[in-house]
Write a structure and sequence with these properties.
Blueprint: H1 16-27, H2 40-69, H3 75-78
Length: about 90
């Protein structure tokens, strides 16, 4: 996230177990990567940035590849959602 840009406020509600896991994980970094610890806000901000980076490098290319490989459906599958004529009429396609 570029520095100097205004931050938008967001309220995040999670169950107590999830908050406890976040606190446990962020406090495990004390003395290893962060001498004073890391705030919940900074921990969550870093986690979101890391996930967004992962998503852009790993997920988006796969989705793009799949979209390119998918063939257009045959006309009888997309015409009114019918794949067989009904009432013995060929005009209902």
């Amino acid at each position: 996230m570029p520095r100097g840009q205004p931050l938008l406020q967001f309220c995040l509600k999670m169950d107590e177990g999830t908050w406890n896991q976040i606190d446990k994980n962020r406090m495990s970094l004390v003395g290893v990567l962060h001498p004073q610890g890391i705030s919940r806000t900074d921990y969550l901000r870093n986690a979101v940035n890391a996930y967004n980076s992962y998503f852009e490098t790993q997920v988006v290319p796969r989705v793009k590849r799949v979209k390119e490989e998918i063939e257009e459906p045959l006309s009888f599958f997309i015409n009114d959602g019918l794949d067989v004529p009904y009432n013995n009429s060929s005009t209902n396609w």
